[in-house]
Amino acid sequence: MSPIHLAIVGVGKIARDQHLPSIAKNPDFKLVAAASRHGTVDGIDNFKSIDEMLEKVPAIQAVSLCMPPQNRYEAAHKALSAGKHVFMEKPPGATLSEVADLEALADAKGLSLFASWHSRYAPAVEAAKAFLDSTIIRSMKVVWKEDVRHWHPNQEWIWQAGGLGVFDPGINALSIVTHILPRPVFITKATLEFPENRDAPIAAGITFTDAHGLDLTAEFDWRQTGKQSWDIVAATDDGEMVLSEGGAKLSIDGVLKHEEPEQEYPMLYKRFAEIVQAGKSDVDLAPLRHVADAFMLGRRKFVDAFYD
Ligand code: NAP
């Protein structure tokens, strides 16, 4: 098959770090254009807006949307309306309803919509899922703590309404948890800590359960300096499972079971090619739904102002 002619929208950190190198190595795609107000990509046609790009490059068959979530709906709607398949960075939107609307539009037009969750493609995630499917889970603890100044320097959108604050990384943990657990969970309690000068939380503590009374807690914090923590620990009838380093490494009772170099974005593009070729969409809203529930149910606590 000839490669899918692809365009990138929003040439920022993740587009440069992950999308461009992954697309370059995948023969299923040919990057033909980019749209970004400031960023550009060498060797292809660059435009300041998605409207101009879609008008001037009719050969585009699919677009990857790498801008912040607050601007994703408008771009996705334009691309789908113009007959293009759409790959959306995580989180897929600023609200659940707008993503449902896009899913319906993609369906009506016979196009593929991909709500990507890169952390689900971390190397040890499938092994963790298989282990949890084979045992009884007694409790699970998620600790996702990182230094926002290191990972998000000068990114204002993460602190604005709809930018999700600490849930921007926290939703990665939720995308893993919702994939590896055998049954759906739901939030029973949450506390969200908002810096007094910001519209999005810097930390969150969440308690979940399921129909069988599972004890599941999650701690998200953006104030961690030094060692960063991206760990999911489960007490099970067959030992303690530790899925660490954001899903890269799996140990059971201290014995390393799985560790490989990460290939998250190459795997995402492999999946996107698969769904385009199969004529279907891949949109799982469970991680975003939990974030919405945390905002709906969570107590709000104001903490010290945050400055970059
Ligand atoms: P970023 O560095 O701020 O880049 C996003 C780009 O989108 C900007 O450079 C900007 O390019 C464009 N954009 C369009 N409208 C914008 C607006 N209103 N405000 C700011 N930028 C706007 O952000 P990023 O880190 O790449 O994150 C983008 C998405 O990828 C987010 O949903 C994030 O959760 C996800 N993601 C990020 C990472 C990471 O490590 N950073 C990892 C995985 C996923 P122009 O100014 O040229 O238009």
TrEMBL record:
Presence of keyword Oxidoreductase: yes
SUPFAM superfamilies: NAD(P)-binding Rossmann-fold domains
Keyword annotations of the record: Oxidoreductase
Pfam families in the cross-refs: GFO_IDH_MocA
Enzyme Commission number(s): 1.1.1.48
Keyword Oxidoreductase applies: yes
Domain Gfo/Idh/MocA-like oxidoreductase N-terminal per the UniProt entry, residue ranges: 5-113
GO terms assigned for molecular function: galactose 1-dehydrogenase activity; nucleotide binding
PANTHER family attached to this UniProt entry: BCDNA.GH03377 (PTHR43818), DEHYDROGENASE (PTHR43818:SF7)
Protein name: D-galactose 1-dehydrogenase
Provenance organism: Mycoplana azooxidifex
UniProt lineage: Bacteria, Pseudomonadati, Pseudomonadota, Alphaproteobacteria, Hyphomicrobiales
